[in-house]
Amino acid sequence: MSEARNPNTVRLAVAQTPVRDDPRDVQALRESGREVRALMREAAAQGARLVHFPEGALCFPSKFVMSVDGPDTVGPADWDRCQWPVLQSELAAITELARELRLWTVIASVHRLTGPNRPHNSLYVLSDRGEVVTRYDERLLSKTKVSYMYSPGVSPVTFEVDGTRFGCLLGMEIHYPELFAEYEKSDVDCVLFSTSGTPGNTAAQAQGHATVNSYWVSMSVPSQHSPTAPSGIVAPNGDWLARCPADGSPSVAIAHLDAGSEAAADAVTYGRPWRREARAGIYTEHQVNDPRSEDRTAAF
């Protein structure tokens, strides 16, 4: 297992945008694209190197809207209802703006597969050159998603920006600590988690994952959920470095990912390397062969 790295400083923006649920609605898809691009410009104006958007930033298709048995019953999704050309044109415009602004952009969307396979629920990673450098597909889907809507992904994804390594998670994957631990083993510096909203205290879970893995966690949620859990960036010590307003407004929050900062130094320099050493079997040579150790009912 590699030693923990010291990432270069990266200025990260996390966004919250209104999420709409009908992929048949051309006007709504266009409006979502305009809002995403407006926040990209705002992030770039504040000096961000990367901006991170929530699940469903362009559209989070409703299980009822998509259901062949709908609108009141959930059934298999009819993906022919999706306005694919409009969705693709909005993604193309976002990609072009990433190039113009020289801004890395992580944007959620539905990734179409060859029929009859269901699409993936995905995060596209767009470079500052306007290229799709990788894509993360949600792996641990909800029961409804996997039963009726999407094909699950199969692997974690990492990428680097200026020497800082990122991992991606999506949807309800905040509830699976093994996925966050997997990224710690992959030596990431920050996990980008996008969601449309999950049950439970999502913000507290983000803080917990950041703390136990000694890395940054960026949590991006829809603006309509911001009154209870606004988008934000958690430091490796579990503190919130930046949060969007809790008033339902589309916005971005900015933070430096700096391993030398007060919020990160001890966790990155000492905590993470020690936990790796502890898990590597250093205790074996100190274990003893003693009857009083083996007898768990021994008197005091």
Shape designation:
globular
Order of helices and strands: EHEHHEEEHEEHEHEEEEHH
Taking the sheet with the most strands, its summary is: 6 strands, mixed
Please mark out the parts with pLDDT under 50 across 5 or more consecutive residues, or reply none. 1-5
Mean pLDDT: 93
Distance between the termini: 40 Å
Count of helical regions: 8
- The proportion of strand residues reads 15-25%
For the largest beta sheet, what order do the strands appear in spatially? 5-4-3-2-1-12
Summing up helix and strand content along with how strands pair, one would put the structural category as alpha/beta
Helix content: 25-40%
The total strand number stands at 12
Structure description:
This protein is of the alpha/beta class and 300 residues long. The chain is 30% helix and 22% strand. The chain is globular, with a radius of gyration of 21 Å. The model is unreliable at 1-5 (pLDDT under 50).
Quick structural gist:
The chain is of the alpha/beta class. Helix content is 30%, strand content 22%. Residues 1-5 have low confidence and may be disordered.
Secondary structure elements and pairings:
Layout: E1 10-16, H1 26-45, E2 50-52, H2 63-66, H3 84-101, E3 104-111, E4 120-126, E5 132-137, H4 143-149, E6 158-161, E7 164-170, H5 177-185, E8 190-194, H6 202-213, E9 216-220, E10 232-234, E11 240-243, E12 251-257, H7 265-279, H8 291-294
Parallel strand pairs: 1-2, 2-3, 7-8, 8-9
Antiparallel strand pairs: 1-12, 3-4, 4-5, 6-7, 9-10, 10-11
Helix pairs in contact: 1-3
